[in-house]
Amino acid sequence: MSLLKEEVEKIAHLARISLNEQDIPAYTRNLSDIFAFVEQMNNVDTADIIPMAHPLDATARLRADIVSETNQRDHFQSIAPQVEAGLYLVPKVIE
Amino acid sequence: MAWEVVIGLEIHAQLATKSKIFSGASTAYGADPNTQACAVDLALPGVLPVLNEGVVEMAAKFGLAIGATVASRSVFARKNYFYPDLPKGYQISQFELPIVGKGQLNIEFDGEEKTIGITRAHLEEDAGKSLHEDFQGSTGIDLNRAGTPLLEIVSEPDMRSSKEAVAYMKKIHSLVRYLDICDGNMQEGSFRCDANVSVRPVGQEEFGTRAELKNLNSFRFVERAINLEVERQIDVIESGGKVVQETRLYDADKNETRSMRSKEEANDYRYFPDPDLLPLIIEPEFLEQVKAKLPELPDEKKQRFMQEYGLSLYDAAVLTSNRELAGFFEETVKLSGSDAKLCVNWVMGDLSALLNKENLDITESKVSAPQFAAMLHRISDNTISGKIAKTVFEAMWAGEGDADKIIEQKGLKQVTDSGAIEKLIDDVIANNPKQLEQYRAGKEKLFGFFVGQVMKISKGKANPAQLNELLKNKLS
User: Does A88 contact B141 at a Cβ distance shorter than 8 Å?
Assistant: First the structure.
């Protein structure tokens, strides 16, 4: 299976990765190879196999419902590019 | 052409835990911005989510209450999209293996019952809040809400009108509050809803193309937004167009729905199992413990109220829609030793009217159940009439004291002494010879006139039953 250039561009956009025009053929090739590999795996009969949700054969440990974190806003915001009135400021995102 | 409306709802209920779904930060509402957003909520490098046991218990409670299978194994997945109110770049949710499977719920609608299917309910984290208004060229981000646990409850497309959709939403609202898993506060966004709406010609099997309505945070908005959307879709089709599948935003100020075009890529979420979280295993013993803690549910209570107190389906449904209201009613019946019908009339009548008027919840009632019961007891034991009781109740509401004190102070005690009532009747008859003559000549309507006159001079205190009886004898 071979991906189209537009598909590679869309995947890059969804991941918010900017690509150089000259790198696109290489990415297209590499991603297509991954898809080819997936296709190869698709031929394996997996009818009786429970899909693996995690590589470790372990189950979730739970924590008790207790508030254990204290307010460290000043500490966290000391590394933020821009803050005001306790809020983190980001470029305007309204539609 | 006649159209049929098809509606399915996705309800987001914030679970009432103390801490967040994957971190130990507080979920309390209304704190200063970002004072309850810890390293995990901020997605700082190297942090790992750890699932909150309280969240699992609450979701399991809900599953049991709707007769669904609570999954023995469920998996958390990443739903990928970029928006600054979600600093990780993905929302942790559940996709293929949700915690709660297929269930169902009965709604009461126009005096009848209907069963609505629930497809699934899954756990996920809420996002933060974006404030667009106050900052020139910037958006302010408050991540206090980020990581608050949500249970997303997805219904089958089983509803056929906006009113049914509202009835279903109210029923879920009532249920999550019974279960104590969500405070149901819609102003604070603890309980909100998206509606999938489509129309099809009556008789057609397949569904029409649906639009998803977002931003519905009150029962009234749900009804209005659905009605608007139904009209819009019918207009589009009848004028030769086609409904497109899209997300639409309801604008309450303009009372319109509009397309959210900029989100055309929104459905490309690229879900995959979150490698930071192991599968959640729920053991049967855990479920047994949760089951043991379940309260009496609205439908069980409703059935019991109908049997035990002889209430109508409507009365029982209204009373049991709210756990506290149902409790108030039962306490009133028990303490007053009065007829359940008298209690239900007063709870649903005068009490509800005053609560509505002052926009109060039953828990904020200015008259407690014991006080209320004591007043109703005075109606049952004939100390006061139902009419006088309204005066007493209003005085109680105004903080003038208990029923007995008010009856005593205002001299409202019913006159039950036949001699005294007879004396009043004699006076009235003596003062109205003309009416007496007409009555005896066959104008029986005037009986009411005499009752009214006696009531007037007794200031409403004559026992109505006795008065009728005695008056009949005197006039004949």
Answer: yes
